[in-house]
Amino acid sequence: MNNSVNFVRITDSDGNPVKFERYDCDNEKQPYCCPVCGGNGLVPNGFYRQVGGKWMSTSLEPEKCRSCNGTGIVWG
Predict the structure, then answer these.
(1) Which of 34, 46, 70, 76 could potentially form a cystine with 57 if both were Cys, beta carbons 3.0 to 4.6 Å apart?
(2) Model confidence over 35-75: pLDDT tens digits?
(3) Beta bridge partners of 75
(4) pTM
(5) Residue-wise over 8-29: b if at least 16 C-beta within 10 A, else e?
(6) Residue 12 and residue 40: Cα distance in Å, rounded?
């Protein structure tokens, strides 16, 4: 039997490692994939400035997700 552990490096939208805080066992918060950005930490530019379903931005550069602060992870 082969017992192995695979580690995944999680980074934010700038490529910096995401630091996790340790929680007590009594704390029931769990990490979830951010439902706003789909876990990638970025949303289309103008995502937060939509008017009538149209994005109010001419830039194609994505911006950091405000729900997860660019980490792709929310706690709940």
Answers:
(1) 46
(2) 999 999 999 887 777 777 776 666 778 999 999 999 999 98
(3) 31
(4) 0.54
(5) eeeebbeeeebeeeeeeeeeee
(6) 8
